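**Entry details**
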Amino acid sequence: MIKDQLTLLAPIVARVKSLDVVNVESLEPSGNVLLVITRDLTKMVQAGVTIKIMPKSPEIDLAEVQTKVEAKIQEEYGDVGETRIEKEPIAFGLVALKITFIIDEAKGTDQIDNWEVEGAANIQVIDFRRALG
């Protein structure tokens, strides 16, 4: 039955895919078909996230902390593509890491502030921006 409904709606779906905004009420399919259509049309909004990792001391191996944080990012968000790493001198030989990466905005960043990584005193989100385009 759903296959027949999708076949009937194929011209509408083809027309709708080219639009950014869809007036769902004007399509009037059954609930099941509507779910399939809207799920297929949903654009995932991406966001650029920058986190700052403060090491516990200047003696901590930053490369090791970076590897652990990148593994945590992979575990939480999956493949985020390329990451940008910056080192920010703080004081008295202490250097913080800044890691920038792209995520699906729907996953959020609240959990990052609670991450515990060996060698890191704290990890916090310092920038969150919607990616355009």
